[in-house]
Every structure is written in structure tokens, then in C-alpha cells.
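#lab-general

N.A. 3:47 PM
ok so I finally got the sequence cleaned up, no stray characters, all 479 residues accounted for. can someone with queue access submit it? mine expired

B.Y. 3:52 PM
send it over

N.A. 3:53 PM
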Amino acid sequence: MSELLEKKYRDQLVTWIGKPCHFRLLYKISRDGCSGPTFHQKCDGQGPTVTVLYNTNNTIYGGYLSQSWNSSGVWINDPSAFLFRLQYNGSSNPLKFPVTNTANAGYGHSSHGPVFGNGNDIYTFNGTINKSGNYFSLNGNVGGLGTTYNLNGQNSNSITNNNLQVTDLEVYKVEDGPDPVKKNVTDSVLLDKPWRKFPEFSTETMLKLKEDIVHYAPDSDSDVPSTNILLIGQIGAGKSSFFNSANSIFRGKLTSKARSGSFEHSLTTMFRKYAIKDHDSGQTLKLRVCDTRGLEEDSSVDPQDIVYILDGHVPDRYQFNPSVPLSPEMLGFVRNPKLGDMIHCVAFVVDGSTVDVMPEKILRQIKVLQTKMNQRNIPQVVYLTKLDKVCPEVEEDAKHVFHSAAVRDAVDKVADVMGLPRGYVLPIKNYESETILDPNIDILFLNALKQTVNFADDYIEEQMDKVPVEKKVEKKERD
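B.Y. 4:20 PM
back already:
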């Protein structure tokens, strides 16, 4: 599970630390493994750090040290140390707990994870802990809370739920200076010139893009009634939210037809080919947004299942069964798919705020699927989502996307990870927290959709060119 500290909590920690600073992720147990030696390898000698625990009660807590972690088996003297609670049972409720016994603020031992306080105020773990289901059951304790830190009337239950079953534990290096993605519009992070040529953000642009999509249709000679765009992505990246956003734009109001949200397992349980209807014209768009199960670390998608989808064998509304893979014997299996049944372009949906910590298991799944797509010459794009978490200026106004150095860097990183040209990485912003439509969000979205169907048209044209050649080969073999 990719947690990563939310912006509001980073801001709160900066306030408590009392100076301009930002955070760089050093260690994350869901990515690096829950191991004392690994923690020290990545975090010793790094200077000030923040340790954050996310437990299964939806509570976030941890500690700050201004001194470096070590593996020497000695106490760490730190008058600036403090513990904190950021969230309790799902509700934002920040509290700071200053150190009282400065000589024993922290403890460094080669086999231990982070330890705060002489009475083990927060003792995270010892040795190596394997993941159990969707969490790590840490073998430390929080029963000594209040021995070395002033709890200001709180107790271990009101701070941590007495719970060391965590979905993640992160350690961030605290670096001096303002966060590069938090500078204001006048700072250099918002570039004077856009890093990508893009249509002007205006109502006219939005309406023109919308009209282009409404009047779009595949080549009539192809006998393809609608272009099929398959969405693939890690759970929580915004895959189902993409369809909801598209539907909202063409309905003229926010809708939520596909189940979406941040959950441990994929909310998508069946293969869907979603149709989108334009409210103004009454037309159904000549494209289908196809949704399938989200990628998970603990439950790999069978590549053969995706191959059947790519090749057009899987009917709409097929219900996935993780214990029973797709096969030609299943009810509704399309044995002789036409070009219109196939997938014409694949859009990988990637959370731009977690590109640096994409789990290796997820990346391996993506690479296997890309191999299957490349064998079929199916074009691929990336919809880069969660841009509001990448850059605060984009959170305020989506038109800043192509002036944001942070978004540019995220595009560069995901292009390298996916092995695709930068121009195939399309920044978008799904409708998630908004309550009304925003023309600038619509423009990003519609432009990405337009580029996707352009790539799909290229694929359809290529498949049409192959038909006469294949017929000639068949005739020659018959003769």
C-alpha cells in the first residue's frame, strides 16, 4: 500500500519543526521490507528524520529526531525531538508531544527499527517482520508512552490505538529549505515558459476539444463501431475515477457511475466497456472506456487474462474470479473476435505523486503486460494522475500543469520507468474532491482523450492494412 505523507501533514510537521524544510523519503517498509538492518542501512547518519506509522485503525503517528539514527546500541540525546499524532481513527487531529528526558530521545541498535524514548515510548520493531495480508504486525510496543515525552493529557490509546499493526512505516530525511513543490507562483518552480506546447486554457479551447471528441468516429472502412481504450493501473491511482471524470464532463455535472476510492483491493470486479453519452447533443461517443481489475502487490493479474482482453475475446460485464482464470470454455467467450472487439489503445493510469515509490511487484506486472502489448503493436499512453499532490499550484489551478517543474519531473520519471516517449505521458486531473466542473480540468482531460483516440486510429489503420496482405497469403497457400 502506498501511503506517503499528505501535504497538510507535511505542512503541520514543518510548523512543529519550526524552520523551512522539506521531506525526502529514505525508507518505506512496503517497498524496502520491514527489517532493522535495512532501516539502518538507509537511515543511519542522515541527520534529522521524521518517522511515520500508518496503523490499521486509520491512525497516523510517529516521531521526529533532529539527530541521526545509528546502530551503536546507544541513546540519542536530542532536546528538539518530539512525538506526534496526525490522524486518529480517520479524522485529522494533529498533536505534538515534546521530549522531557532529552538524553534518551531515541535509541539506535542494529537490529531495531526506530525507537523513541527510554521507556520504549514508541518501539517499532526488532529483526525482520513479514507482511501479513495487507499489514505488518510489528513486534515492538507503545505501552511506555509518556516515559520520555510529555503526552499533554493523552495516552497510548488516544495517540496510537495501542495498535502496531501498520499498513506502512516511512522514514523521511528532513532537508533544509522550502519544499521545491511548495514555492508560490513567483518562484522558479513555476516556469516562465511551458515545458510542453499545449492549447490555450480557455472556455473556447474546452468547447472545441469537447466538440472534436463528440464528432470523433473511427475510419468507416474499418467496420469498428467504437474505439476501445483499456485502462490499466495500480489500485488507488484513479482508474475508475477516469471514467467518472469523462462521464461528468459530457453529462455537464459530476457523476459517479463507476465505483472509485482508496481501498486495499480493487473495486473493479468485472470487465466493463463503458459508453459515454454527450448530454448536449444526445449522441453516444464513438469510444469505449474499458475497465478491468486494478494491479495489486499481493494479487498479480494473470497476463493471459489481459491477452484475452486485448484480443477481443472477453465480453462486456465478464465477472472476474481470481481463482479461475479466463479460458475459451467460459460462458460468453468471443471465439472469433472482430477488429471492433479488440483493444485499440492501452492507457496506464499512474499516480504521479508515488512514481518514486512504485512497488517493484507492480512494475514487474506492468512490464510483462507491456511485452504482450508490444507483440501486438498496441499503442500505449500514460494518464498521470494526482497532480494536485505533486504540485500545490496545480491543486489551486490545473492550468499551471505545463508550467510546473514538479509535474515535468514526474512526467520524465514515469516515461523512464515505463519506457515510453515523454509525449505519451499525459498529465490529467480526475474529478475527486471537486463539487463543480472546472474548464481547466476538462481541457487537460479532453486533450488526453483526443491524443489517445489518435493513437488508436493509427492502430486500427495498421490492422486494416494487414487484411489485404493476409488474404493474399491465404490465397497463395490455397493455390
